[in-house]
Amino acid sequence: MMKASLVLSDVVAIKNSIDQSLSEANERGLSHYPFWRRVLPIVSSNQIYQIEASELAPLMEAKANEIVYAATDMLMQHSVLIAALQSYSEKRGELKKIIKRHTATEDGVLTSGLTESEVAEMAPYEIELESLIKEVRSRLHPVQELAEKVTFGIGPAIQKHYGDNDFPVFVAAQIGQEAATES
Hints:
Layout: H1 2-27, H2 35-38, H3 53-61, H4 65-98, E1 102-106, E2 109-112, H5 116-162, H6 172-182
Antiparallel strand pairs: 1-2
């Protein structure tokens, strides 16, 4: 099931983007700011995958129930992750409508001047953005674990059941290399 490896690659790329944003912000001495101020909008594949019963049939026949459950859960969790990420990026973009005056730019940090009404208008965005980016961060590890379980478990399960050692098997180094080239 190639979808699992695509989800895994996507999750690793998202995680790397968030980690890079946080690392760069922290290097600039901005670690005291909330996450939403340190994590830039993230571009991911935005692809949401569906699963057909026919894709799961060989795994069910092989009695690889744990992989079937993990695959279903992985795709559902990934779609929630992508929706939260899209919402985060859209809402972060909407702030540009509120913040119109920038007073300084130094080392990649934009300083803006806000009126009291702009600060009040931003307050709901700040709460929602912080909640969204925390939600995204909290979902990354569980989705990655599910994607790894499915990606690396399908090949061996099918090989064992059918006695066919020619069935392809993903190796962890392959996925890491794909994700590294995408981030």
